[in-house]
Amino acid sequence: MAKPPPPAPLDSEDEPAFDLQGADGGAGGEAGDERGFFAEQATKSGGLKKRSAVSETVETADAHYHGHRDRLRERYRESGDTALADYEILELLLFRLIPRRDTKPIAKALIARFGSLAGVFGAQPALLQEVKGVGENVALELKLIASVAQRMLKSEIRGRQVLSSWSSVIDYCHTAMAYESTEQFRILFLDKRNALIADEVQGRGTVDHTPVYPREVVKRALELSATAIILVHNHPSGDPTPSRADIDMTKMIVDTAKPLGITVHDHIIIGRDGHASLRGLRLI
Predict the structure, then answer these.
(1) pLDDT tier for residue 8 given thresholds of 50, 70 and 90
(2) Which end of the chain is more exposed for a tag (fewer CB within 10 A), N or C?
(3) 107 close to 94: Cβ distance less than 8 angstroms
(4) What is the spatial distance between Cα 277 and Cα 139, in angstroms, rounded to a whole number?
(5) What is the spatial distance between Cα 233 and Cα 269, in angstroms, rounded to a whole number?
(6) Which residues contact residue 52 at a Cβ distance below 8 angstroms, ignoring those fewer than 6 apart?
């Protein structure tokens, strides 16, 4: 029986192609498409997980400071300001001004920069804005609050006998002037009952000097029909000790006012940590 002839060798043109890449560039046809699909899904899944993790971190941070705000408000509601430190009082105010940020670091930075709560409210807006997180609007709002406090204290002495409300006078002058960056010369004009007629800033100067003209002081007193005055100025250095120039200027005003029936009750010098009375020191 004759053996069948061996199969003819395949020509290279007749050889079936096992292309490793599909026609569309995918990996191996359908199998390549499936691998590409799952790889794509894995990438999307990883991206979603990353976005989810970031979202959870933001939400956790939001929940943290909102929870802190709620607890701080509750402490104030239950116990008042005595339960809070100065920076926490400032935090409460900043909650409304900076609604979407943790205000605790900002409050602490303000206290650290200006030394106290009074120092913060006495600071100029430009200086407040040097603290990170404090913009123009926040600085102006803080100054508005300071102005309200000054008005409240001023209302305590307006129309009242000033000499019998001396502590209120000192409190008002300290709030209005202690943290000014330059010298300010203020005069309280009184009527014959020693009630406050007017409170005017007559001069502003440099960090250690302000020009004062005794005749102008007396002239203004006559215009207001004042029978007595109290002189007040601040020392930006913080030390209220009167200088030789302070004493000499006060005596000149006393000598100019006395012949016209105007009494100089006192000259008060305001510093950050206290005040000095020239009459109390027997210097007038």
Answers:
(1) low
(2) N
(3) yes
(4) 33
(5) 5
(6) none
DSSP character string of 97-161: HSTTS--HHHHHHHHHHHSSHHHHHHS-HHHHTTSTT--HHHHHHHHHHHHHHHHHHHHHHBTSB
Looking at residue 261, what DSSP letter applies?
T
In the chain, where the domains are located: 49-157, 161-277
Name the architecture of domain 161-277: 3-Layer(aba) Sandwich (3.40)
Identity of the amino acid at 38: F
For residue 136, with 0-12 CB atoms within 10 Å meaning exposed, 13-18 middle and 19 or more buried, which class applies?
exposed
Q: Is the pLDDT of residue 59 over 50?
A: no
10 Å CB burial of residue 138 (0-12, 13-18, 19+) is buried
Measured between alpha carbons, how far is 51 from 49 in angstroms, rounded to an integer? Answer: 5
Q: Encode pLDDT of 178-225 as tens digits.
A: 988 889 999 999 999 999 999 999 988 777 778 899 999 999 999 999
The encoded tokens of residue 250 equal 């006060």
| Cα–Cα distance measured from residue 244 to residue 269, given in angstroms and rounded to the nearest whole number | 13
Single-letter code of the amino acid located at 33: D
Task: Please say whether the beta carbons of 238 and 271 come within 8 A.
Answer: yes
CATH top-level class of 49-157: mainly alpha
35 is written with which tokens? 């691998």
Query: What tens digit of pLDDT does each residue of 232-283 get?
Result: 999 999 999 999 999 999 999 999 999 999 999 999 999 988 999 999 999 9
Please give the helix or strand (H or E) that residue 235 lies within, else none.
Answer: none
